[in-house]
Amino acid sequence: MTREVDSTRIPELESVVTLALDEARRRGATQAEADASLSKGLTATVRMGEVDTIEYQRDRGLGITVYFGQRKGSASTGDIAPQAVRDTVEKACTIARYTAEDAFAGLADPEALARDVPALDLEYPWTIEPPEAIELAKASEAAGQAVDSRLTNSEGASVGTQRGVRVYGNTHGFLRGYASTSHSVSCVLIAEEGDDMQRDYWFSTSRDPADLESATSVGARAGNRAIARLGARKLSTRRAPVLYAPELARGIFGSFIGAIRGSAQYRKASFLLGAAGTQVFPSFVHMHERPHLRKGLASSPFDAEGVATRDRELVRAGVLDGYVLGSYSARKLGLKTTGNAGGIHNLIVDPSGSLDAEALLRKLHTGLLVTELMGQGVNGVTGDYSRGASGFWVENGQISYPVHEITIAGNLKEMYRSILAIGSDVDDRGTIRTGSVLIDGMTIAGE
Question: In the beta sheet, which residues pair with residue 187?
Fold first, then answer.
């Protein structure tokens, strides 16, 4: 019988990590760290009422990094049997002997490591079998297509569940692990009217399946969004305010996080180089990192190096408080790690008042509401921003008509300073939690 992937597997992974660290010491490593994990998942996808794919995923892995003084070597394996672990450590040690010394290499400082691992309620198994997942996906797609007879096609509806457990340890005596789950429902539908064809989507994701939107409501929302885009027009080139829907506003702040990462700072490859302590946003903008949110999708008791995660005020009254650092980048910059090796943990962007979606349209008055972005046109060094977009043209605070085949452009430094409002319509489905963002004066390139 296949064993479950849950918190009961932590002792097993602790043994794997301990073996790897002991083997590294035996081979002469002065420091070592190892990360072992198990994961399993199920995803069922249907299209046009028929089963498209059923995917099972089951993975295991071990990553080991060893240090011989300031020489570093890393290796990984998908086999966590004892001999495979020893062989992987041997490979890491061999690599380390041929690498150049790096004065900043090494484990996180012992005093920074997590001493306690808070219970964050990250593990909520969903004992769903393929037949039930298929039926939920079918129900989602059917509910969406029932919205309007013009919803004639589909890119599919999916139901997925993932479970995982991870243990990290190092030769400073740190050895901790935790289990987590994530679940999702999504639907993508296509609307047609004459020669016009438009697609749109919706999804729900959470740690706890009880917190998911119902499959039928996900499908219905996808259907309504697709229908709303029928009759999309092109715009003439102009300059106008732009309102980003919450799920897209997340990307605006994602670029901000990328620019204040330690690696971007020490490589001098950031449009916010040396910006700590300076005004980056208007004074009404506040951002907080909250790593210990119960059920948070990006919650974690420690980072990828075992460093304790803590609440942090990242932006106060528009002023950048500091950078996002792991141990290596912190040493390069002469600073201390912020517990962000591996990324940010639940960045919360505060709303600027109680402006819901309708109130934001009134504040926009006349301009562009963006609901989809295409391409990767963001230059992390200069801050230049250019993305393909579609959405809705707004006049007098009301949606007037859908638009497509346009490009919105600007520079992120200027865009951040030109934020007029952040909505209360917060999207909590990712690492960054934010409402809609209204930016004054961007270039809209069209006909």
Answer: 157, 202
